[in-house]
Specification:
Layout lengths: L1 H14 L12 H12 L2 H5 L2 E4 L2 E4 L27 E2 L5 E4 L2 E4 L16 H10 L16 H5 L2 H11 L13 E2 L11
Antiparallel strand pairs: 1-2, 3-4, 4-5, 5-6
Helix pairs in contact: 2-6, 4-6
């Protein structure tokens, strides 16, 4: 079983683009958080991608800053039922049956990122799937299976790391709900 899992996961891990080294002088807890962010694939959605000489690569000058505020995404189209969602070229915006969602700015910017959040709000958000722990739902494609299986110590380590990365001012748009299909009553 372990060998089979390794054979499946190894090519996926090796295919992931190399990311720049994180901040220097991290505490042991923040260094653990840095590893958990990498293993959790947080950069895959929260770091905008750009076109490089060999295709799309993460724009590490905008690491974990979420969907770029100046890029407009068209309203969700009705997808055939075989499609769950479609991602934008930047890999920070997604459309599906819920509407359009945007990857959040995870940097410690006080106006547009997590700079005003408390550690407990972050932990609660990761446990409940609610913005700041009690607000609107955090939308797909954010996977709730992985964060809810993390221990509180692991989530706090991620928080410690996110507090140490460079703040980037980037006002991510609010999500947009999809119109219900014809013949479906709203609010029921």
């Amino acid at each position: 079983m372990t060998r089979t899992l390794l054979c499946i996961l190894l090519p996926l891990i090796l295919a992931r683009p190399a990311l720049a080294a994180g901040p220097a002088n991290l505490s042991a807890e923040a260094r653990r958080g840095e590893k958990l962010v990498a293993l959790g694939g947080c950069n895959d959605c929260h770091t905008p991608f750009k076109m490089g000489p060999d295709g799309l690569v993460p724009d590490m000058s905008r690491m974990l800053s979420g969907h770029t505020e100046r890029i407009e995404i068209p309203t969700s189209s009705r997808l055939p039922t075989v499609w769950l969602w479609i991602g934008a070229e930047s890999r920070t915006a997604f459309t599906g049956p819920w509407g359009v969602s945007y990857a959040t700015n995870l940097t410690p910017d006080r106006e547009t990122g997590l700079g005003e959040w408390t550690e407990q709000e972050f932990v609660t958000a990761m446990r409940t799937g609610k913005h700041r722990g009690s607000g609107r739902p955090i939308l797909p494609p954010m996977s709730w299976g992985t964060p809810t299986r993390r221990t509180d110590a692991e989530v706090r380590a991620i928080w410690a790391y996110l507090r140490r990365i460079p703040p980037i001012r980037n006002e991510v748009p609010s999500p947009r709900s999809a119109e219900p299909p014809p013949g479906v009553a709203q609010g029921k």
